[in-house]
């Protein structure tokens, strides 16, 4: 695990009690409940897996929906997302122990379905929790498995093509030929459209990743509103227009004048390969809120259910916009616009615009999908919306420390001193996630701001839908 990633994860997991003003908990209350345990284990699978952000968001949503539907059978009011109230157990059985068992068998079934190669990890958690994953004879186990299987049956036909390895089902093909990152860019068929990139990855292999999941806008959304909200997003600036030139010039000037804090923000929020990705990042924040607010099992089932489904819908909506406009990333648009011109860039250099690169690790210079809108902005704004509504306010109090010299872009140099990132509110964290992609040279201003607006709308719709389920309205 790289230094920055290791430090960031540690900082997220160990935000100090002083920073969050948390009182000490009694010894018997310090362990996380099964909802948090399954979330932690799933994020471990995410970090070692190969799924991209929208698929990770869907995986989180499926596991937490299975957990919620299993739990709903032991609640007096809530209804499940697929089977309604048909699994409801009598009042005498509605104990925390039965809820935990049903949740665990449901989450195990979902996790194995999504990450079959990591079954041993999920089996180990079941054993640690005191369950035999092969023994589904008990009522809670049967309830959890039945609830989850209905969710899986639905999601296997939801348009994601999970059973086909998430392969594109739409026949997408880029209009531009691959751009070799190491070479100056002199030609593009359409500089306003997305182009694949060829570069050397961290394993030392030369790769040209295709557009990630161009069919994702067709995935069935939790709220039913994601695609409609996406289709209402205004188009990006046309390449060469005054608005486009202004935001391109802003990226050039911003990345050329990055401070250590801005560089730390860009790297902290990058969430690229071998990370929990942006959706998982907000699940880590939810774990902090669970600890901060001393959640019980019932609260966490609802929190993670609403949060995970909001980020799944955010991925669906963002990818619908990305596919609709197929917009070019700064790495190609700026190179084409400024080719033959001397421009400033990060590190105090002056370069030919045709060779410009964002402030990113060279082994992953830009994610492989269209620019508009920003996925980071959409995921983060949706998650922040749910966290605000669930907690009844915007107060967060999160923080992370980026260690001196821990940069992967400028190792040993940046930052010159430890940098502490603080987010008094959920909104602050979401906004910083959005602007981090502009600091990193990954997104233009409009892609960030419209992504934030889309995320807030998606989060609101997902919240309303989740609340209807646990209020018994379905």
UniProtKB/TrEMBL annotation:
It comes from the Bacteria. Residues 1-29 form the signal peptide. InterPro entries: Br/Cl_peroxidase_C, DUF6851, NapH1-like_2nd, PAP2/HPO_sf, V-haloperoxidase. Residues 62-184 form the DUF6851 domain. Keywords: Signal. Residues 303-461 form the Vanadium-dependent haloperoxidase NapH1-like second helical-bundle domain. Gene3D superfamilies: Phosphatidic acid phosphatase type 2/haloperoxidase, Vanadium-containing Chloroperoxidase, domain 2. CDD domains: PAP2_haloperoxidase. Pfam families: DUF6851 (PF21167), VCPO_2nd (PF22778). SUPFAM superfamilies: Acid phosphatase/Vanadium-dependent haloperoxidase. This is Phosphoesterase.
